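Friendly challenge for the regulars: who can give me the structure tokens for this chain first? No prize, just bragging rights.
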Amino acid sequence: MAMATGGGTCLYKEARLNIEPAFPGSTISFTLPASTTSTFSSRPVPKRTVVTEKYIDQDEEAFAKRHLASEGSMFFRRHHEYPHSFLWRILDNRKALEIQSADLDQDFNHKFEANLTLILQFSAPIRPFCVAFADSEERDALTVFAITTANELYTITLHRDFFMKPAASEQEIGDWCKRSSPTLFTNRVPYRLVAPSVHELLVSLDDGAILYMTKKNKDDVVWSEATYQQNNWSLGSFLSWKGQQSVRFDNADLDSSAAAAISLSPDNKHIFSVCLNHRLRAWNVTSGKPGVQRDLLDENHRANEKAASYFIGPSQSTLMAIVNIPGGVDGALYYVVTYSPRKHQFKFWGIRDADDTNLGIYDAKPELSFIPPVDDLMNTTVWTLEEFFIIPGPAGWRGAELWIRARSGPSSKVYSVRFDLTDESARLEHTWENDWISVDSGPLTVDGLKEDPANPSELDMEVSELYEVGLTEQWLDFLFYPGRFTVATLETALLIFRRGLDRSRSGRGAVKGSLKERICTTVANFASLKQNGTMDSDEYENVMTAQWQAFYGLVKDLHKRRGESLSLAFDYELEMPWLVLSDYLSAIRKGSHSEIIALNAPALSSGHLSGPLRKSLASQESRNISKLLNAASSFRRNLPSSLQPQFRHQVESELFQNRSMSVLDRMEILEQNADLFRQVSEDDVSLLVEELGTDVKDLTTEMFLRAIALNQETEPTRPSSKKQITRFGLSALVRVSQETLDTHYNDMLDLLVLVLFMIEEDISEDFDAPDIFTEIMNQLKDCTILTWLVSTVWSHQASTGPSSEVMMTSLHETFGSSRKFPITQTVLEGIFGHRSFNTPLPRGLKTRLFTYWTREWLSEVFKENFDSGVEEIMGVLLLQKEYTLALDFSRFLSEGNWATYLKGRMHMALGENTLASVCFQKAAYNLALGLFNLDDNDDIAFIPDTERVFFSEGLPKYYYHILGLFEKTKAFSFAADFARLSLGTLRGKEDEDLKKELLERLFSASIATSRFDDAYSAMFRQTDSALKLSNLQRLITSMIQQSRAESLLKFPFIGFTENVDSILSSLCHNSLNLTSGPPYHHILYSFRISRGNFRGAASILYERLQRLKTTSTQIHNPADESLTQCYLMIINTLSSVTKEEAYILAEKRIDEVGPPHWGIGQARNILKRQIVTLDTLRKEYQAELDRVAAIESGQFPFVEAGDEMDIL
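First reply, four minutes later:
Bragging rights claimed.
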């Protein structure tokens, strides 16, 4: 992060935000009407289209057309609150104008967010510098003015609902898009367009004229036109039009008097312009007469032909600014600030009377040359200034700021200076020479990515092997880090990369799957092409590394094009600058104290502090802390590169250990594992002492603790209207969070290395190393978890405010109930996005807004305490069903009771029921007692209201709750275990209802797991008679269906013999198929035999015999022995009783006239009771044997006369 030498004091950083659709279908394109441009071309048909972003198969040209803007900036409305900020970009060869809201927040009561992107498609390209925006006081709308190369002026009125509700733009395009062709456009070329208001336009023309167009109200169709031009007609002027006095620009010849900058005065009485011939001019709006004129450097009085012939480059963006600061010793009504590219010099012109050519204008500081020292700042001799903004101070010129954007070749930088124009000349000159502040481009530039320690392309193979994850995982983590590369960038790079593979393997089909899968597959396929025979693992790793490097080279090239700087914009309401890049929007923020110290390390080491840096580090204590941080950073950076990832891994392993040992022991183990002391050379120690400016032993505990808490100061706040964050605001917070966390984590590692080194040195007895170590480790724990949150993307997106909830509802209707919407959201956004305004922000933060806001937002995570914050995150992950992420996050959980319970819920969700059971039992004692308060631990309603009563109310209820959880997941064996645990902890008779419920749940779980012994036990312990009988029937039915009749018959059924008999009898009577269904009759027969009821056993078999005769299809099959066996069993059973009791009462068929027609279940209705003796049965048995013998010999008819064969 160290700043380049000579780059000026660096106090600001860019926070680069990707420009991507808010959600699929959030981009709406409009083909605008146009006149026919040629005889043969057809007039475009106006139409509205919802754009489906297709990044797959998007080549470089398509990528550039859709994503890389050639021009762009921001417009800030003054008359309406929301949307306030608009980002606009010109795309697709200047034929498309893309507009979207870039607000950071909105009122909490707003139900819709302005998250739609509008693309206006023109039939002809838009001219450079010919787009302007205005804000109407009468209508809550954005007005866009654009002039195309067809010289058509478009007036486009976009109501604010166009940016909020897709249906709002479903109206005729002609109603809000008007075209006109001003008369002066016929033979002239528009050069610049400015919109002072929605009813006023200023157009600079190629011949030097200025066209002032007005209309009285919004309903006017025709513009009133007034022209302002110097009447210097002569033969020379005609000749010069075709000679040296014209400048070629965008296929047009511009007269040297053409205005490259135009603006109305604050009182709207004069038009000021800066012309290509290096002159400032004023025109009286009412009279049309020219007023004050000056050369931009006020050098016309010199007889210098070279100066007179100097022309400003027509592509110069900004040349003039009017500053409404009245007063001053010379009586200026306002000031005009001009910039001369000739000498890179600013002039501050005081305007007394713009009509008075002699005394109406004066140079406020003629003795000074206001030249930004960009030569030194950018270390170049060739540069151009592209934009500048003057921001008045709170009291006129005192505290005024100048922001500039300068370019030298491909490099573009932003600088600012704070000054007071009324200061004495010597002081003002010193300020302009020495007090410039630069803006760091941040870690997303190509150079910034190169310095990223997570970038696999910059790692040596030996160092890479020290990481736990493999090469592919390292690359995927780097490429898909939230906010780093857009999906469009990766898709386009993959398409280019795949072309080489397709050429090498013709006929191969396209790779399918997710973007990650397609990248991995393509890289692996390329690596396989490079194989020459068999390769060992090291060779294959080298080939894979080369292919990943090749793919990243393509990503890097596209990424670099995205970072092309387009314009600097300034929001005067928030007093904050923005930088618009080709495919980024950068918020410029003031860095935190840690970031400022790191960015200005060379200056701090040398002791030569500029005014702004001295002001940022005002006290001697803060400068000592800066020395400590920079020295510690250099000390760690000088350690061997192989040690860095190894030490980092050891620290992360130590952070969440729960070992019971002293702090000093932990420090010694960490130092020994890293072998730090042996890695430090004498030169390292000498450099450390030199940068500290003192001996190591002189370092104090207080200095370390203040360095640790450097960025934690707060400011007083005042209540303000409640806000909700927007997507751009949330993206900015995430981006700044990523950067500040990285800086803070590295600072803590630096200090940790220094402390571990110091314990081996002679240090002061007052130096409390364990206290410092503990505080550093606590900070690292916070950082580690926050970094995980800000770098991890989840799939179940959550709303971040009322308007976000409306959007989620709409997406739910569009994409179904999966809730896996195709939008990217980090876990930090999803969980804490809605809390971004929990703490009111101080007024007037300006460029400190994002740095301060981010710090307050991140503090929400651990607002109560560390463990509570971690447990809340875990609970949300489980509620959102992000079980894989919860497993990864679980390593941060403590061994607390609530944390252990949450781990159990996670294991249960992952199907790891044994681990879940262990966790639930481990936490049972504390969670079930009254000492635990669920309301203090569960702020997110993880436990439903109906379940909360089971905590702190004793073990039976807690186990009952766990039992219910396992039942929901159908883990009935574990449900039964916890039912038994709950029953085992019941005391007394005060919980009879709970006991009944537990026994019922135990019985059900035991039945579900075929634990019939447990089910029998639970059933007989049940005190509810009705439940007991119901469970008895379930038990019998389940055991028979699972062929466990033998076990069933072993149960004693004390007191329930008749009930069992009745249940089995019912099953026998209701069975429909005797041959293939369960053998209910045999089971009842066995049950009765086991109880000594022989006649009853014979009776049920006789019933089966009767049904076999009437329903079985096998009765005429001589090989079927079911009837004979049944007869034998009945005869044998009755033979076991006395002769007097050897009979049964049975139902017998009634002989009817004609064959009976029985349906299923009708047989019993036409039977009568009779006594069947043993002798009768023997006779029937003999008759059956004779019948079978006759059939086998072929002497017996299959159907007797008058009978029909009954077939079931």
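The first strand starts at residue 9 and ends at 18. Residues 426 and 773 are 50 Å apart (CA to CA). Your move, everyone else.
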